[in-house]
């Protein structure tokens, strides 16, 4: 009986500790962006805003585009709890046609790797939406 009580208490303690481990947490304004129609050879930039809703500083180790046609800028300094940041993805709209791209964000945030997405259609200049 003592063993059962001991292991039951240990299990309850472990579960309680697992729920209270502090973490950094991304709270994205949006993880997708639709450019619609964009003019050929006119780079476009999507901004993905976030707030760190966790209890620890959020450190982005790396953010990279799914291809060489996408440049990515991200905060290099830790984003403190309650503070905000922006990841910018600039797409080189050289090739005509529809595009669907992604940005992979590696950080210490809860949930592991995060994915951001953007899409649109590159059209000849003069036919893009204004």
UniProtKB/TrEMBL annotation:
Keyword Signal: yes
Domain of life of the native organism: Bacteria
Keyword Lipid biosynthesis set for record: no
Signal peptide range in chain numbering: 1-23
Keywords linked to the UniProt accession: Signal
Pfam families in UniProt: DUF1573
InterPro entries, per database record: DUF1573, Ig-like_fold
PANTHER family in UniProt: LIPOPROTEIN-RELATED, SIGNAL PEPTIDE PROTEIN
Protein name: DUF1573 domain-containing protein
Organism: Spirosoma telluris
Lineage summary: Bacteria, Pseudomonadati, Bacteroidota, Cytophagia, Cytophagales
